[in-house]
Amino acid sequence: MVIILNKPELLKKLLGVMKKNGAKGATVLDSMGQGVIMKSFEEERPMIASIKKLKEEGLFVNKTVLSVIEDAETLYKIADAIESEIGSFTEDSKLGIMFSIPLNMVRGGRLGRYEGLFE
Asked: Beta-strand (E) ranges in the chain?
């Protein structure tokens, strides 16, 4: 499960909802959209300096949440609970985006080792 949350003030609640509904863990990354990055490049600065300036200014406005969910039932339970308690990603496009990617191999983390498509 991948969630790009445009409203970081909802992160704590989102993680609580995920845990309560079966997520065994998650990784949270600071992130920013392409528009913010492209705007910083307009100021004629090298890329690394542009990104450093954005970070210093607190413009990493998104949180990207990654979580390996073991089965479809739990995945949809978590997704439905998030939209019920946080808000609908479909109705509020400014909230962010939530999607899943099928995994066919996992090594490490709480799952240990898994090979084959999660179902």
From this structure: 2-5, 27-31, 62-66, 96-99, 105-108, 112-115
